[in-house]
Amino acid sequence: MKTKLIFLALLFMTILNIKAQCNPTITSPRLGVKFPDKVVFCNTETETLSTQAFGSYQWYKQEWTWQTPNTNPWTAIPGATSQTLTINGNDDQLYYFKVQVIDGDCTAESSAIMADGFAYALPAMMSTFTPGTYQDLGEGEYNVCAGASVKFDDVFPDLYGNHTWYKCIPGSLPPSVDPCEISGANGDTYIATGSGVYGFYACTEYCPDQCEFLGDGSFVKLNFGNFEFCSLATDETKRKESSLKIYPNPTSQFLYIGKESDKTYKEISIIDMSGKVVLQKSGHHFNEPIDVSLLVIGNYIILSKDSEGNSYKNKFIKK
User: Fold this and answer.
1) How far is 150 from 20, CA to CA, in rounded Å?
2) What is d(CA 121, CA 93) in angstroms, rounded to the nearest whole number?
3) Which positions ≥6 away from 294 have C-beta within 8 Å?
4) For domain 21-117, which architecture applies?
5) Rounded to whole angstroms, how far apart are CA atoms 164 and 225?
6) Taking phi first (over 0 means left), then psi (-120 to 50 degrees means alpha), and beta for anything else, what does residue 236 get?
7) d(Cα 127, Cα 153) in Å, to the nearest integer?
8) Cα–Cα distance list, 145 to 195, 222, 234, 246, 303 (Å)
9) CA 14 – CA 284 distance, rounded (Å)
């Protein structure tokens, strides 16, 4: 009998202990669908957060910030004292939410969840060029050597799903079919090998009805051809690397090239280590200084062609 009473007492204490350890958690239809502990809105629709049944409730919110730890205060939401809380994509994006519950002698808080709206991010495109095969003309236009290629990537591949790529600025967007569309190009990457004006239209994977156009101001124009800098940058031309004088080297401001017997150089191009043409001159005389003071410190290649068509390739250091 005594053993039975001790067992019942321990069981009763265990039940009280479980009761005292109330552990609220937040659930909702979209919580964790894309990212753990996040509700991601597609637009201004609503989402209902809920927790288990307890005696009383108070919901709180905290504004998101880049700062770690988050120093924004948690504030009690007026009137949010029920088992559920309805939030919306218009007012509650970029806020954290939690609930405090009381049940008997137990008071506890849930872990925080976040309401996010990453699906609103505007599209962006990254262009990758092969060093030595292109010339930046500014304002999104480039000369590219024939036979080379340029890779375009959606900067947010995890956000967007189906893409529509264009080779010119379209007059109409999907679902209409436009002659500028590149047939079969629907991934988040496109490799261009011909002249055109490139960009895309894409729909978000998480919110398939939400689509964005890159915007014609962000399209990139490519002109493929056999430009002078292309022949200078290949090994197919004749080079006299050891016979051309470059001085002073290193230099911080002025650079001199050549010899008196050459008199003039038809063309001079300075290329940085990424392959970008950063300075060009034509009709250069051997005794004229080349001002490189505006170049950033580093290693460069200088390609030059004399009046007889001989090409030279030399390296110099900008200090």
Assistant:
1) 64
2) 13
3) none
4) Sandwich (2.60)
5) 26
6) alpha
7) 7
8) 11, 10, 10, 27, 16
9) 93
Written out in words, the top-level CATH class of the domain with range 246-318 is mainly beta
Residues paired with 87 in a beta bridge: 47
Residue 163 has a pLDDT of 94
**Residue ranges per structural domain of the chain:** 21-117, 125-231, 246-318
Alpha carbons 251 and 270: distance in angstroms, whole number: 14
Under a CB-based contact definition with an 8 Å cutoff, are residues 102 and 27 in contact? no
Amino acid at 217: G
Grouping H, G, I as helix, E, B as strand and the rest as coil, residue 185 is coil
Q: Tokens 């321990």 appear where?
A: 10
Cα 134 to Cα 153: distance, rounded to the nearest angstrom: 18
Q: How is residue 95 written in tokens?
A: 């806020």
Q: What is the rounded distance in angstroms from the CA atom of residue 70 to the CA atom of residue 302? A: 51
Neighbours of 172 (CB within 10 A): 11
Q: Give me the residues of the chain with pLDDT under 70, please.
A: 1-21, 118-121, 231-243, 259-263, 273-275, 309
The phi and psi torsions of 241 (rounded to 5 degrees) equal -60, -35
Q: Taking the complete model, does pTM exceed 0.70, yes or no?
A: no
Residue that has been written with the tokens 């236009």 in this structure:
141
Enter the tokens of residue 230.
């292309």
Q: What CATH number has the domain spanning 125-231?
A: 2.60.40
Asked if domains 21-117 and 246-318 share a fold, the reply is: yes
HSE, side-chain direction, 13 A CA sphere, residue 203: 11
The whole-number pLDDT of residue 238 equals 40
CA distance to 114, 132, 230, per residue, from 303 (Å) = 56, 11, 11
CA 316 to chain centre: 34
CA 88 to chain centre: 27
Q: Which two tokens stand for residue 198?
A: 């490139």
Asked if 55 and 82 count as a contact pair (C-beta separation under 8 A), the reply is: no
